[in-house]
Design goal:
The chain has 435 residues and is an alpha/beta fold. The chain has 16 helices and 13 strands. Strand 4, helix 10 and strand 5 form a beta-alpha-beta unit. Strands 1-4-5-13 form a 4-stranded mixed sheet, sandwiched between helices. Strands 6-9-11-7 form a 4-stranded antiparallel sheet, sandwiched between helices. It has a 3-stranded antiparallel sheet with strand order 10-8-12. It folds into 3 domains: 47 residues, Transferase, Pyrimidine Nucleoside Phosphorylase, Chain C (Transferase, Pyrimidine Nucleoside Phosphorylase, Chain A, domain 3, Up-down Bundle); 248 residues, Pyrimidine Nucleoside Phosphorylase, Chain A, domain 2 (3-Layer(aba) Sandwich); 89 residues, Aldehyde Oxidoreductase, domain 3 (Alpha-Beta Complex), CATH 3.90.1170.30. Helix 5 crosses helix 14. Bound molecules: uracil. Uracil binds next to helix 9.
């Protein structure tokens, strides 16, 4: 089929043959299909979905668009974690070194910012010198020597996701259960892991706004993982407000260091403990989730996780002194508070708007070619359930270029709901699947 025919066929609700999917993903990875045609096909998939056979073929074609890492030479359990994307979601950064410090290796292939959400790679690259584009050989060495290594998709590893991820970011084709599942699971299955913990975000800052959609996404990914021999569990976690206090690349590295030092925000630390605890269970180091959580807490208390973070940063070419001196991270030139319009209780946060505010000041990309401003972002000053006075800052915008700051401030102001009564607050972990 010509690509234009394939697009029309999918647009009209057809089911693509496995062969056709393999061919088109191979051709796209090789640069033989232009972005405009792939964007049109992705939009057709967004509206029409993929059936089970199409999804299996799509995920497998993405996985086999590059190499699969062979970690057989590295002793011990290898377990990873991946989030479906959130605002202020820096969990992987303190989590991977903590889990490694507890004796389970973490080979991690991550992504960049996607839509209104931030990406682990962009955050890590705000550390001066830090490289995420390592060769497969160096990645394997990092996992063996440091216990964890965090890289991106490359021309050798899941190149199909490398290209498609960047395209989906700027073409309104992110929020699709089959496309998210194939993107995440192709990266994770390429890592040579035996266990995987998925953090499926639910709420205003997530791609899945309702528990029903999040559950469907979680079950789809857990199914793909288990069918491919990787024991996979999922946590559905609350994303109705930013994770922690920092939204923005360098700001989130500073907050990750705070978590490793034992003085991080309560929600961020609790998520690190729960997801890390589950990773230790899958890695055979902890007998129960509670045991795993206790081991993560001890790795924070003893400083073992922070030591592992320093070692990882060093191994990947970054300046490990950021673990002791956050002033070595890039800092924005100016600040602008967003005041509460009236007194009351913070009842809700439209977290997607907060993510877009960070994007418009340069923390994310409008077009594929855009570069990121690592220093910019937001400090959240009032969370759901906080009592605020009129004029009290809800958030502070940290920016370099004043051009878009008023737009960002309007987005943040519109994101906050303030009411006369304290709201009921829900749990951080809504449910687990497969644990
Ligand atoms: N994370 C990914 O790696 N891919 C997606 O599509 C969404 C979140």
């Amino acid at each position: 089929m010509l690509m234009a025919e394939t697009i029309r066929f999918k647009r009209d609700g057809g089911s693509l043959a496995a062969d056709a999917i393999r061919t088109l993903i191979r051709a796209y990875s090789a640069g033989e299909i232009p972005d405009y045609q792939m964007a049109a096909l992705l939009m057709a998939v967004y509206f029409r979905g993929l059936d089970d056979a199409e999804l299996a073929a799509w995920a497998s074609a993405m996985l086999h668009s590059g190499e699969v890492v062979d970690l057989a030479s590295v002793p011990g359990a290898k377990v990873d974690k991946h989030s479906t994307g959130g605002v202020g979601d820096k969990i992987s950064i303190p989590l991977a070194p903590l889990v490694a410090a507890c004796g389970v290796r973490v080979p991690m292939i991550s992504g960049r910012g996607l839509g209104h959400t931030g990406g682990t790679l962009d955050k890590l690259e705000s550390i001066p010198g830090f490289r995420t584009d390592l060769s497969v050989e160096r990645f394997v060495r990092g996992v063996a020597e440091v216990g964890t290594c965090m890289i991106g998709q490359t021309e050798a590893l899941v190149p199909a996701d490398r290209r498609m991820y960047a395209l989906r970011d700027v073409t309104g084709t992110v929020e699709s259960i089959p496309l998210i599942s194939a993107s995440i699971m192709s990266k994770k299955l390429a890592e040579g892991i035996s266990g995987l913990v998925l953090d499926v975000k639910v709420g205003s800052g997530a791609f899945m706004k309702t528990p029903e959609r999040a559950r469907e996404l979680a079950r789809t990914m857990v199914g793909i993982g288990n069918r491919n021999g990787v024991r996979t569990v999922a946590f559905l976690t609350d994303m109705s407000q930013p994770v922690g206090w920092a939204v923005g690349n360098a700001l989130e590295i500073a907050e990750s260091v705070e978590v490793l030092r034992g003085c991080g925000p309560a929600d961020t630390t609790a998520l690190v403990e729960s997801l890390g605890g589950a990773m230790l269970v899958l890695g055979g180091v902890a007998a129960t989730l509670a045991d795993g959580e206790a081991r993560i807490r001890e790795a924070i208390r003893s400083g073992a996780g922070l030591d592992r973070f320093r070692a990882m940063v060093s191994f990947q070419g970054g300046d490990p002194r950021v673990a002791d001196d956050p002033s070595l991270l890039p800092a924005a030139a100016s600040r602008r508070d967003v005041p509460a319009p009236s007194a009351g209780w913070v009842t809700s946060v439209d977290c997607e708007r907060v993510g877009i505010a960070a994007l418009v000041i340069g923390g994310g990309r409008r077009r594929k070619e855009d570069s990121i401003a690592p220093a910019v972002g937001l400090r959240i000053r009032a969370r759901i359930g906080a009592r605020v006075d009129a004029g009290q800052p809800l958030a502070t915008i940290e920016f370099n270029d004043p051009a878009h700051v008023e737009h960002a401030a309007a987005l943040v102001a519109a994101a906050y709901g303030i009411g006369p009564e304290p709201p009921a607050t829900g749990p951080l972990v809504l449910e687990t699947i497969g644990l």
